[in-house]
Amino acid sequence: MNRLDVIQALMRQKGLKNYLEIGVENGHIFFRIKSSFKVAVDPKFIFDAGRRFGKAILNPYNLNNQYFEKTSDDFFTQDAQQVFAEKKLQLALVDGMHEYHFALRDVENTLNYMGDDGVIIMHDCNPQTVGAAGHFEDWEVGEWNGDVWKTIIHLRSQRPDLNVFVLDCDQGLGIVTRKKPESALAFTPAQIEAMTYDELVKDRKKLLNLKPTDYFYEYFGLRA
Ligand SMILES: C[S@@+](CC[C@H](N)C(=O)[O-])C[C@H]1O[C@@H](n2cnc3c(N)ncnc32)[C@H](O)[C@@H]1O
């Protein structure tokens, strides 16, 4: 199971359509989504008008896409109010700058425009090496997930209005819904800031509320 499977299952079986993707890169996921309301945000899209046109032929839903080539912070400050004035968000993939406070702002800003039934999917929540789990400026080679794992711990500690868990697949898919948490943590932002990768390794399952992939179907009442 990967993020595309999760998004498509929620769209097809739950009817959640209005879609935002923060961090789109070459549109590998974005262009495949079948929804007439899709919003793409990235400071540097890795595609040109020709690729957009080709993708619209393959998937005509892409004719209606809205593109914002800017940071998510700028998008939320400058454009979001107008973009979501008439349509509430139902699904969002948060996959932009993979750092604790960036991802946290992305989730919090997204929630401001999301209906009660909405779902946020966060990529890269379960890094498997210390090198993959740190700050961008310390990253050298290989996979980089950043410290989005700290955003998960923050939400589970500070947001009693959200249920948050991480599916154990595709680098860790964080799932955020507006529901009473099934379990909570009690860390302060300062404690989370100071956490090390070793602490994550020692208590990964509990800190991330890590779930097997089948739990996704069970939680949302979907067919596998
Ligand atoms: C891992 S890629 C996204 C991959 C894509 N979501 C997918 O599933 O194929 C991360 C993207 O985040 C973008 N990014 C970096 N900083 C950002 C920011 N502040 N706001 C929005 N996007 C950002 C990068 O330009 C990059 O294209």
How are the secondary structure elements laid out?
Layout: H1 3-14, E1 19-22, E2 38-41, H2 49-58, E3 66-68, H3 72-78, H4 80-83, E4 89-94, H5 100-111, E5 114-122, H6 148-158, E6 163-167, E7 173-177, H7 189-194, H8 197-202, H9 204-208, E8 210-211, H10 214-220
Parallel strand pairs: 1-2, 1-4, 2-3, 4-5, 6-8
Antiparallel strand pairs: 5-7, 6-7
Bound molecules: S-adenosylmethionine (SAM).
What does this structure look like?
The protein has helices at about 5-15, 50-60, 70-80, 80-85, 100-110, 150-160, 190-195, 195-200, 205-210, 215-220, and strands at about 20, 40, 65-70, 90-95, 115-120, 165, 175, 210. Helix content is about 35%, strand content about 15%. The mean pLDDT is about 95. The chain has a single domain (about 5-220), classed as Vaccinia Virus protein VP39 (Rossmann fold). Strands 3-2-1-4-5-7-6-8 form an 8-stranded mixed sheet, sandwiched between helices. The longest helix has 12 residues, at about 5-15. It has about 220 residues and is of the alpha/beta class. The relative contact order is 0.14. α2 links the parallel β2 and β3. Bound molecules: S-adenosylmethionine (SAM). S-adenosylmethionine (SAM) binds near residues 23, 44 and 72.
